[in-house]
Automatic annotation (TrEMBL):
<keyword id="KW-0539">Nucleus</keyword>
<keyword id="KW-0863">Zinc-finger</keyword>
<keyword id="KW-0507">mRNA processing</keyword>
<feature type="domain" description="C3H1-type">
    <location>
        <begin position="133"/>
        <end position="160"/>
    </location>
</feature>
<feature type="zinc finger region" description="C3H1-type">
    <location>
        <begin position="163"/>
        <end position="185"/>
    </location>
</feature>
<dbReference type="GO" id="GO:0008270">
    <property type="term" value="F:zinc ion binding"/>
</dbReference>
<feature type="domain" description="C3H1-type">
    <location>
        <begin position="77"/>
        <end position="104"/>
    </location>
</feature>
<feature type="compositionally biased region" description="Basic and acidic residues">
    <location>
        <begin position="200"/>
        <end position="213"/>
    </location>
</feature>
<keyword id="KW-0677">Repeat</keyword>
<feature type="zinc finger region" description="C3H1-type">
    <location>
        <begin position="105"/>
        <end position="132"/>
    </location>
</feature>
<dbReference type="InterPro" id="IPR036855">
    <property type="entry name" value="Znf_CCCH_sf"/>
</dbReference>
<feature type="zinc finger region" description="C3H1-type">
    <location>
        <begin position="77"/>
        <end position="104"/>
    </location>
</feature>
<feature type="zinc finger region" description="C3H1-type">
    <location>
        <begin position="133"/>
        <end position="160"/>
    </location>
</feature>
<feature type="domain" description="C3H1-type">
    <location>
        <begin position="163"/>
        <end position="185"/>
    </location>
</feature>
<keyword id="KW-0479">Metal-binding</keyword>
<keyword id="KW-0694">RNA-binding</keyword>
<dbReference type="InterPro" id="IPR045348">
    <property type="entry name" value="CPSF4/Yth1"/>
</dbReference>
Amino acid sequence: MYSILIKKLIDDTWLHLEVKLTSSVYISKNFDMWFFSPYLQHNLHFDFEPAIREIDENEERCHQQYIDNLPKDEQEKFQKKVCLHWIRTLCNKGDHCKFLHEYDRDKMPKCFFWLKFHSCSNFDCMYRHDRVELKDNKCPFYVRGFCKHGSGCRRKHVLKDSICLNYLAGFCPDGPNCIFAHAKWVEDESKIFAKMQQDSNKEKEGEEKKEKEGEEEAPNQ
């Protein structure tokens, strides 16, 4: 047992308490602060600390054994989603609960209203609002070339990266239902503008020639 020695100094403004832990080491408490000697900072231990470490190790071992004894399909799903009862402080299964006792927004269950009605009026809804799950079908407008909803569309905007070899050869029997991309040849913008300029220049030259020919024919008449 630790013996407590109390000393009252002549100066009443400070009160010192000395707790004797060994014959040569003391913890001195000042009126407004605690300070520990370097020896105590590295060597002060309690008798119950080994028991606490043993309890923690046993709990971890038992928890791992419980997981290992589960079927493989349940092991893969074990504590992958947040426990709804734990959120409401109603779960009494503790560490053996198959669901996660930790708030992780990415592991929250999907919002029922968001999945069914594609909208949720609760601004503080704690459930997951995953747009990817709403994209069950391809967007018909995106397939045609343009979708006004852009990245906010609830349907799939599929980019076909692999080019269809049949289409490159000249004919694809699958047509628009082909799973590969049908390449569209697009000229460079600079070439397009240059070609447009050449065409306009040719038209002007043709009109000027016609005007000159008309002027030359007019005096002869």
